[in-house]
Each structure stands twice: as structure tokens, then as C-alpha cells.
Amino acid sequence: MKAVAGEQWLVVAAILIFLFGIFLGARLPFGRTRRDQKKDARQSPDYIRGMYAMLTGDVETAIERLSRVVELSTEPIEVYLALGNLFRQRGQIDRAIRVHQSLLTRHGLSEEERVLALNALGSDFRTGGFMDRSLRTFKDALALNPKDPDALVQLVKISEDLGEWGEAYEYAVRLQKVQRHRDNRHLSYLLAQKAQFMADGGMHFRAAWSLRRAIRLYPENMLAYIFLTRLYLKVGKADKALKIMERALREMPHKSFMVISLLKEIFLAKQEPEGYLRALHGLAVEHHQKRALIQELQEFTELKRTDQAKEVVRTLVKHFGRSRLVQRLIWDLKRKGDMAADLEKDVAQTFASSEQMMDPFTCIYCGYKTLEILHRCPNCKEWNSFSDGEG
């Protein structure tokens, strides 16, 4: 009888221990699953307010709130990604790098999560100026997922920044295949830069083939025309150089300001100075190009062709009298005594009633202004985007 009572007591004790274990598992945090921790973190006020602050651009509040979340739970991957990005945005690159590197030390990350962490870390390195480390990190991301568009986008940009045009072109081709969108304009400029690198290395035939392909991809790529023209001049084929330049000017007479000096080189190589003057006159008169007119005036002045110079001055004053460049040039002529006497009064009256304007080249995409001839806007990174307008 005592034995039966003892056995019953053991059963009751076992049941009580089991129920107490369930109670502890429900109350203590170490008894929760990873999924429960994620759920709790995402339901916390700090998580919700932190994410909302990030979306509304309140960086300080977002960092404060999300930092509290990671103190309570290390599970939500997106919080670490967001927090590191916020540190980068605030200029705290070291903290951003530490946050994103800590993610990569975790076990159990999915491939997608690891790629996201690598891309974030690569952006940290790039913002901090660690270009080599950034390049390696994005390549690591691409090794995990060869079709990751974010890594490809960054690799194109970094390769461009480093002047690695061959790699930039290859990454751009891969990116456009992934996105199923072909941007012939961008590919054309990258291919032209790649070809110029080959030409500098003595691979003239391959460079010429690539430059012609760049022009087929985008017929308004003036940079490719310039590179191809210079390549033909370098190998002593001035006739071919002239044909290429004539085609470029037919396609883009408004871009003649980029090639006036090159045009002169071609005709000097052909020993045809009059041909150069005819080409200048065509641009100046037929296409109404200010800098071609200015160059024509300088040529006529040097050659002492007074009547022709006089006509160019009249055209410049009539159409471009507000240009500071034109005004300075004509006053220089007057000071040197090269100004025709019958023009002085008309010129003085026109200039007196005209506001002096700068002569910048202006990016048509972002409005960036410069007095240099640039093939790419340093502000918005658009190619061949400058116009020669007054303003």
C-alpha cells in the first residue's frame, strides 16, 4: 500500500515539474524561438517609430530608436542594414562599417541576406574613399549572386571612377542583360573609353574597330569621333581622319566647339590651310556657331585679310554682342590697331547697350557650368551633355 502511494506521488511530482517547465518557457526570454524574437522586435514601438523616422528623413530619431531595438534583439537583419546605412548617411563611416561587418560574422545568414550586407558594406567603403576595399566587397557580393543588380550598378560606377573602362563596359553589359534594358548611349561612351585605352597601348586596329562600333551604338557620341580622328592622325591617315570629322560635324554641328582645334590639326596634316578656313566658314555661317566665328576672325586677323575680318566682326557683334568672350576679343583688336576705323563707332554703340555675359558651357541635364571643354559632366555624370549657350 505504501509502495502504491509512493508511485502516485512520483507521478504527481513529474506532472508538477513538467507544468512548471512550461511556465518558465513562457515567461523567460531564452525559451523563445528566433522567429518569436523577430516578431517581438518588429512589434516594439522603437522598431515602428525608428523605421518611420528613417522613411521621413529624421536620421537622429531613427538611429536612436533602432539602436534600442538591436540592444534588445540581434535578430532583425533589416534593422542592422538600416542602422549602418543611417550612420553612413550621417558621415559616421567607421560605425557604419562596424555594423555591417558584424552582420557578416553571423552564422545562418541566407545568401540573399549576405549579399545585402556585402552591398551595404561596399557602399560604406566607397563613401569613405576606400575604393579598393569597396571594389573587392562588391565583387564578393557578385560572386554569391552573379545577377545581383545592386552590385553590378556599383561596380560600373567604381570602375568608371578608377578609370577601369574595360571592366566598366563589361559590368554594364552584364547589368543591362539582368535588367533587360539596353542603354546604347552609355555602352557607347564606355566602349569609346575602352578603345582609347587600347589605342594608347598600341592596339590600333582593335581600337579603331571598337570606336566604329561605339559610333554605331550611338551616332551622337562625339567622344568616339574625336578618338577615332586622333587615331587616324596618329597613324598618318589624315584623309580618313577628315572623313570621320566631317561625318561628326554633319551629325552634330552644334558640338563643333569641341573639335575646332582638332579640325585645324587635320588640315595642317594635309597641308591644306585654305581647306581649314572653308570648313570654319561653313560652321560659322551655315550653322551659326559662335566659336567658329571667333576662330575665323583670329585666322583672318593673323593673315591680314581685313575685309573678311570686318565681315566676321559685324556678324559677331550683331548676333553675339552680349558675349564677354566676343567683347574682349574685339577690344583686343581695337587696342592693337587691327580694328577697321569704320567699325569702331558701331561696335562701341552695340557694346554700350549690351550687358556683358559669361561664355560658359552648360550641362543640359543639371545646369552645371564650366569654362572648360568637358566630355562628361562632373556633377551629374552625363556624357556629351554640354551646350555652348550664352548665359
Structure commentary:
The chain is an all-alpha fold and 391 residues long. Among the domains are: 272-357; 360-391. It has helices spanning 2-27, 34-43, 45-55, 59-72, 77-89, 93-104, 111-127, 131-144, 149-161, 165-179, 184-200, 204-217, 222-234, 238-251, 260-269, 273-286, 290-302, 306-320, 324-336, 341-352; strands at 361-363, 369-370, 386-387. A three-stranded antiparallel beta sheet has the order 2-1-3, with no helix packed on it. α12 runs antiparallel to α13 (222-234). It starts with a helix and ends with a strand. The model is unreliable at 10-38 (pLDDT under 50).
Question: What would you say about this model in short?
Answer:
The chain has 391 residues and is mainly α. 72% of the residues lie in helices and 2% in strands. Among the domains are: 272-357; 360-391.
Structural class: mainly alpha
Helices, by number, come to: 20
Strand fraction: under 5%
Distance between the termini: 111 Å
Low-confidence stretches: 10-38
**Considering DSSP H and I runs of 4 or more, what fraction of the residues is helical?**
over 70%
Q: What is the molecular shape?
A: elongated
Number of strands: 3
- Report mean pLDDT, rounded to a whole number: 83
In what order do the strands lie side by side in the largest sheet?
Answer: 2-1-3
Order of helices and strands: HHHHHHHHHHHHHHHHHHHHEEE
